[in-house]
Design goal:
The structure is a homodimer of 455-residue chains.
Chain A lengths: L1 H15 L3 H48 L6 H27 L7 H15 L1 H9 L5 H25 L3 H33 L4 H24 L2 H12 L1 H15 L10 H55 L25 H7 L10 H49 L3 H15 L3 H21 L1
Protein name (chains A, B): Nitrate- and nitrite sensing domain-containing protein
Keywords (chains A, B): Coiled coil
Organism (chains A, B): Microbulbifer celer
């Protein structure tokens, strides 16, 4: 009878004093919810990757169309515009269904970077009219495309930056850096084409090309750090392929030219063709990465869902078995939980020396179980947090390096390339990571800025 | 008529091709939603801060009750248990209303740290029975309380770690570090009381006390970095107050004792009383911080809400004015938007040299406006991100230092204090920040671990 009353009385408090297991389950549901959002972001990234590729192609064709005074590539350009339009419509439909029909499906930063790019996309037809009428310089058209592509890439960056699952974040970091490398490759192609069109490469152009090659290299390095072995091998395959090798030879020819030394404009087509072949290979690796990104993100949702079911089953089983009078094992008595500083080292012995009998009345194996679930989840979260920090580091350091570069450009009046080289030299001289040098520069730069406003 | 058709045709696409301004508004709504969640987390932090304080008091009283074999503090302890119960019920009611009745109001990590602490709270009555029956050693009781308090502090840490508004995050980082300092002060009080109760301080105890004093100092330093000038002044007031000065004198007396040199047990009460007075002063500063935390977080919600209204009004006004045939200014033609590498430096001149007339037909001042809204918001988000990184750095570095300490303890078999001192010495010798040393240790430690599993 006593027991029955206990159980009856137990019903009311449950409604407003929450049990630990309810929060355990709520935490798991929150994880599932955020993994679902993440899977949707990954689909978005896939659509963005396709649109970026189509825009990169249109950029190249518009460039040639303009440079040839409308003589070349008219047909191909028209077809390409259709591909861009279709890709753009697909993306916009996705955006509407995912983020406007259901609120709360993405954060402020992702949504704003979408707004930013959409406004650029809206203006694309205006740009095309100018291209059609030959009313814009090739360089200006290229710049407009680059801005739009840069905006779309920032969507991918934001998706990676807010992801909170380590496996998916790693893939997103790899994907973002690969897309970035491909865009640098596209810009290298554009500047190279400009040099050939002018039949000369001056020192400014040399500097730009080498900076873009370095930038590709750096992005690829981060990609390799976070990619799987099979993708690394695919990348090696691309770099060892005949067009990439031929492109390297042509890069060396350009590098060997003195400032302003003339070069045959006819090489322009060879340059363009080789660079394009390499970029197309990069795109097929990118497609492959996008496919796996989708697989992994969906798999993580499924895993978390089955973990939730498992939690439910275990809690249900425990409630049926555990006798209400036994106190469960909790963090209070877990020697592995740190609490009092210094009590870990030899404290157990001290306690034993003070001769108090251990607490009785527990059936440890059963009582552990709910606590085990909570601890297990806490442990997993901690581990995920560490892995996540490592993956995000690659993104944050990138941001830090950009920010530090800005400080040097402003304060010392350096060009972007010079600022970067300065940081690189300092890192090598002091055996520091580039990011650590960047952090110091930002700190010093901001103190200097504070002082100058105070003065 | 032409115009009319245009407008009619315009209606359908709006429904499924999203306009940039819709995402601009969605981004602002997402910000408001996340600020509201943050304001709720701040209320939670306030409730946790109160419960931690009450538990710290109960911990001290239980300790004296146990050490005196049940002779002292029985009445005060009973009263204190009621205060803890009331504070705990308040917190649990809040938790239930905020996080279980409405799903999606918090992330996995915050919810799991809540589950973890709640399970500990559930076990508190079991601990009290042991204390009442004198069936637990004072040290074990202290350890149990420390674990529970550590769990509750981790709720505050999680709330700070997931916050994405710089102003609120700064306050949360200050608050968390101050709470942490206060907890170290409580642990120092406990170890001091143990030393006096034994009438001697051995080298192990000396080491612990000095480590806890250093730990307070480090946490207070971070608090000061993120606190406002008035709070820094309040803190100075506490440190200069007579009880804090007297406590410092007593600390020096203890430090001057040789290993095992006897000291009057009667000083125990003086020690306890002085430490308690200082901790109570810290609590009133903590209450003050909590109050401002709530104010700031609510103010941020109100600000974002009025920004949303402003966005609506501006977009509405623009739609009424802008002639549908003028193409708006977008990122595509904004010279401030980086896109093509190298095109910033002198590219405008190059473009001008190629002699293309600028695009016509814009009414720039009007057309800029929607784009201005989007750019303004993007700029603010970027700035907030930088500020946020700076505030989060303090939390991440803390985690990194803890993780590196663990690597050294495992790999070199060092004690916690020795591991910390080793890192500190290395940082000073190489003129590096502690966090940079920690990052290197983690990197090396993990490579070593990978190698040993491969071998």
């Amino acid at each position: 009878m006593e027991r029955h009353t206990d159980r009856t009385r137990g019903v009311a408090p449950v409604a407003n004093t929450p049990g630990a297991e309810k929060f355990l389950l709520a935490a798991k549901r929150a994880e599932i919810c955020s993994l679902r959002q993440l899977a949707e972001s990954c689909e978005l990234v896939t659509a963005v990757s396709d649109l970026v590729h189509q825009l990169q192609r249109e950029r190249g064709m518009s460039n040639i169309f303009l440079a040839s005074g409308g003589a070349r590539f008219r047909g191909q350009w028209q077809e390409q515009m259709d591909l861009v339009r279709r890709s753009s419509e697909r993306l916009q439909r996705q955006l509407y269904l995912r983020y406007l029909k259901q609120e709360g499906a993405a954060g402020m930063r992702l949504l704003n970077s979408i707004a930013y790019s959409l406004q650029g996309l809206d203006d694309l037809d205006g740009l095309r009219v100018q291209v059609e009428q030959l009313a814009i310089a090739p360089l200006d058209s290229t710049r407009a495309f680059c801005r739009l592509i840069g905006g779309l890439l920032s969507i991918v960056f934001e998706a990676a930056d807010v992801a909170d699952d380590p496996a998916v974040t790693r893939m997103l970091v790899a994907m973002f850096n690969f897309m970035q490398a491909k865009e640098y490759a596209g810009q290298e192609r554009a500047w190279g084409a400009i040099g050939f069109a002018r039949s000369r490469f001056d020192s400014v152009l040399h500097d730009r090309l080498s900076h873009l090659q370095e930038a590709q290299h750096r992005s690829v390095e981060v990609f390799i750090e976070f990619a799987e072995a099979s993708d690394q091998a695919r990348w090696q395959g691309i770099e060892n392929s005949p067009p990439a090798q031929d492109l390297n030879r042509l890069r060396r020819v350009i590098r060997g030219l003195a400032d302003g030394e003339p070069i045959a404009a006819e090489l322009s087509e060879v340059w363009y063709e080789l660079a394009t072949q390499r970029i197309d290979c990069m795109h097929s690796l990118e497609d492959h990465l996008a496919g796996r990104l989708l697989d992994i993100s969906r798999q993580r949702v499924a895993e978390a869902e089955s973990e939730l079911e498992d939690h439910h089953a275990r809690i249900h089983a425990l409630k049926a078995i555990v006798c209400p009078n036994t106190s469960p094992l909790t963090m209070l008595s877990d020697p592995e939980v740190p609490g009092l500083y210094g009590a870990g080292e030899g404290a157990a012995k001290e306690a034993a020396a003070e001769c108090v009998p251990p607490a009785q009345g527990l059936t440890p194996n059963l009582a552990r179980s709910i606590y085990d679930l909570i601890r297990g989840q806490a442990h997993r979260i901690k581990q995920m947090g560490d892995e996540l920090n490592d993956a995000r580091r690659a993104l944050t350091e990138r941001k830090q390096v950009e920010r530090a570069k800005g400080v040097l450009m402003r304060n010392l009046g350096l060009s972007e390339a010079a600022a970067y080289r300065k940081m690189q030299r300092r890192a090598m001289a002091c055996n520091l990571r580039l990011a650590d040098v960047a952090a110091t520069i930002i700190e010093i730069g901001e103190k200097a800025a504070e002082k100058s406003t105070q003065a």
